[in-house]
Amino acid sequence: MPATISVADAAARFEAFQRLGLNLDMTRGKPCAEQLDLSGELLSAPGAAGRANDGSDTRNYGGLEGLSEARRLLADLLSVDAAAVVVGDNASLSLMYDTFSEAMHRGVPGGEGPWPRATRVLCPVPGYDRHFGLAAHLGCELVSVEMTTEGPDLDQVRALVADDPAVKAIFCVPRYSNPTGVTYSDEIVEGLANMPTAATDFRIVWDNAYAVHHLYDDEVPLADILAACRAAGVADRVLAFGSTSKVTLPGSGICALAASPANREWFLANRAMRTIGPDKINQLRHAQLLPDAGAVRAHMRRHAEIIRPKFEAVDAILDAELGGLGIATWSRPRGGYFIDLDTRDGCARDVVALAGRCGVKLTPAGATFPYGQDPRDRNIRVAPTFPPMDELRQAAEILALAIVLIAAERDLLESL
User: Fold this and answer.
1) DSSP states of 264-298 as a string?
2) Does the pTM exceed 0.85?
3) Residues 325-345: pLDDT tens digits?
């Protein structure tokens, strides 16, 4: 049903919210307290013995690849073979940083030496700000590629990688992408695996951060990129990452790299220079909490029961306030952690600033683009999971009112 809001009513309601002195945080996709409580058993496990399945003492040094039971857990999350997995500590971003840093300093298998300072990295947009920040921090040039409803625009990607050996990598969040919620189609996966690249050491950074984060029972399928690259004769092309950050406890989870034998050997040789071993006690905790794929699926269904109503509440509020006005569009994701919202061009920064005057903290407009610059100034990443439901409803209503008021200020509301 089309929204029937008037500008005068929007302004009055917005002023009423301002008087409340709210402090509502929707800046990042963090699990809420109820989600964290699902993994409370981690705080009392494992038992005093701390013995892994192979009998090793998890309290001691060693085990660069990770415990076999932890590798199996992460393999289940990423839908890969456990033999492909190396387990790390709480942040897959740290593994990505290590791989990029080593590539810049020492090169990767199949290359002819360190990646140059002029390395170019493809960034599907809108996308994940921390990916972009990591590559920019290491001196790479960020090159935007448009996202479609099936994944990154393959024609753009092919054209960029075909003739320029300085294009060394592409970032991908393949299932329930941050922030669009898109899951890559089979055609995109096959295209990325089979495309010719001028750089012999080109890498697909496959950050499957939301691999099991379904909101509904009809799980969206995703093709196996490692298998596709092996079949295409470029097994070393992909570096896949994942973690339990939004499965268990983000600050004390475990993460994984899944890759070809050559890439794993390269990674472990570099890793041995910076650590004698990971936190195996925490790996054992996780393997005890989630001993098999069935336990993971049951655990994630409990997550979905908590956060699905939040996504649906935001969608309902945006639809009631903005539906049919032609001043905003937004995604209705089947999984992941974000709603991708587009205002009319030139409005996003002002909308975020105006909502902030009511105490609603949003991810900065432009954050989903390289260097924080959205050329159309329209994209806003909405993160519904962290706030309690009553605060979330207030924040969503304030966001909608801010969109209406900025649109009215720009004379974009002809019907009101």
Assistant:
1) HHHHHHHHTTT-S---HHHHHHHHHHS-SHHHHHH
2) yes
3) 999 999 999 999 999 999 999
